[in-house]
Model the fold of this input.
Amino acid sequence: MQMPIPDAAVMARKARVVERLLGVLPADAVIYEERETKAYECDALTAYRCPPMVAVLPSSTQEVSDVLRICHEEGVPVVPRGSGTSLAGGALPTADCVILGVARMNDVIETDYDNRLIRVQTGRTNLSVTGAVETDGFFYAPDPSSQLACAIAGNIAMNSGGAHCLKYGVTTNNLLGVKMVMMDGEVIEIGGGHMDAGGLDLLGVICGSEGQLGVVTEAILRILPKPEGARPVLMGFDDTVVAGACVSDIIKAGVLPVAIEFMDRPCIEATEAFAKAGYPMCEALLIVEVEGSVAEIDHQLRLIMEIARRHNPVELRESKSAEESGKIWLGRKSAFGAMGQINDYMCLDGTIPVSSLPLVLRRIGEMSDEFGLKVGNVFHAGDGNMHPLILFDANKPGDLELCEEFGAEILKLCVEVGGCLTGEHGVGIEKRDLMHVQYAPADLEAQMAVKDVFDPGWLLNPAKVFPLDASDARRGLALAAE
Amino acid sequence: MQVVTEQELAEQIAGASGPLSVRGGGTRGMAPAGEVLSTAGLSGITLYEPGAMTMVAQAGTPVAQIEAALAEENQRLAFEPMDHRGLIGTQGEPTIGGVFAANVSGPRRISVGAARDFLLGVRFVDGQGTVIKNGGRVMKNVTGYDLVKLMAGSFGTLGVLSEVSFKVLPRPETQGSLILHGLDDARAVGAMSRAMGSPFEVSGACHDSQSGQTVLRVEGFEASVAYRLEQLRGVLNAGGSEMVMLDADASETFWHDQRQVQSFQGTDGDIWRLSCKPSDAPELAAKAGAEAHLFDWAGGLIWLRMAAGTDLRARLGGFDGHATLLRGDTQTKARLGVFQLESAGVARLTAGLRARFDPKGVFNAGLMDAAA
Done:
């Protein structure tokens, strides 16, 4: 994985940049000593590290605007950062950049139950948005696995999903408005307490733009009333094809569960050894959860289990209590930790049409043998979002590279069957160089044209999302313009 | 101009010598100046996987054909797009490309999302005749920028859609509605807000100021619908108004009419569609002084029937939302602008995107260039 050569001219201006930043921020919000900038050298894609030139922690939209205006004038690239939980390297710095962290901006500005919305500063963590409204019976629906730590800013940048998006959608479907600072320091507001745009849907293209169009400092989010209850059923099958057919039949029957999670044998074995959730040893395991009143849940689970029985499950276990529900979810929720016990792992995020599931699982199994690396599959089966976990040994020379090569082959397969490279983690640097697989040059050109409009100098998070050779000329222009 | 393949579409656009008036079924009566470029010839369902809840269709495919195919598998377009012919008094056949290009969403928008939330992927031709694809046919996709959302609701001003892929949902077993009588606008919005804030999954909430009827819809399995309607009655009882239940057939008829804004059909005057924060709706409606108004989306959408030529936006002043002039004569549309952009910053970015996607300015000139 290549990153652009840092701009020596920018780095030579470090002292002046720091001085100017100290002019608009308190001293403790500007981090420029090398031993301290190291704290920002990576996000959750820890294989790649590079301390930034400076890191700043503004406390208000005005301060963000001041920082961006200065960086714009000085020609310094800016890498926005939420909580640094990106698995795709979305917040990886370059040696010539300013990291702009929004962690100090975590206030709830307004809760409005009449209109079912909450306005927050974007440094607030995902889970604490729900935390602010749950005693009043509401919640914020998108629930990425990292929700305890990840910030709304990052959720918006990556258009994060979660286990329950089959029913509730992802971030973009729950975002009503933003306050955003442009690279030149201008503050704009898009959307609000109303629905849909009056003109072009700019909110739609900002969400998921990986911090390349602007820095979102405030967000208006949809909050929803909590369902009366929820309960899962666990089912095991001795064939992944049969499990896939069962998922399809459940959906066709008109039941819309809030979650359908899938685990394959390697993953079941690992989680059993680790969490002892009492899962059956079989080829494929499904956890299907429904919501509603007691009677509604009973009715839906009855329908789902009737469908499952037609597929001869080796196990069919309906949760009868909160305790049993907890046990059913235990293994799934500890799957990543369990795989991590065995070895280092790389978590992929490709999405496939649900109908291609059996084919893709078979091919991954074959490739696992070819590469000599083990894979466990966890999968949001309702929406086709796969999470193959490839095990490797970070201390063994060449193993990371082999693992990345294997991962790339899996992602190419996802695209080949009609899916995509990433369903909820984002492109970042991790999938940047595979963008050619999914998109033709004209498709990438159209996306980069959007960045040209929002950030003509290509200073915001410039070396991400687009293959370096595709964005070279634009980033070069930025350099030449200095 | 009539084209039957994407390639022909691209060639026609690349070779265009003057402005083009991009048209799906022509049922919106937008008709910007220029030679008509119709997508009606790009027709047909390319792929339908009921078990994956996804469909791919060429842009000119009639909505009726799509809804018929979905009905056979007991599925539907959950965002409930309206048919504009009755309200605007137009002919033609609504197309799926037109639905997404105009982001047309009906009453169920408050519970399931807008047309744009169901659009998974697009193929389109930009102003220079280049074919571009974005998104795909899977439900979760964050690979690169979301131009799918940008195209939804862009009314053909950035590119001409040639193919769309979208998510569909199962058709619920049954439905029922609860009618509250005699509420004024403010109390109606309060009641709709309480209903939407309950866990009983209301999928439609509207209020007719003239008849004083507030209607709430619930859909799902039969026992569940009965249970939730009963629970809702309890939640709303505090208001003390008279309540009546509508059975499945009556409920379906009512919401079919609401979806097409039946009560404004065949009337005179301009029709405006105003998107706002629901709690602002009563005050905005009072300020508008319309001849008639209806609330949908629990108050988040106001349909207004105004004397021809009235500048609604001038009456309202600044507010959280925007007003679209849906039906009016050409002069009024030219004078007031059809769309309302939200701020100067948004207007500048919009102009910038237009200049990049359609540098020669061939598509629907002036259509979305409303004053901020």
Notes: The two ends of chain A are 27 Å apart (CA to CA).
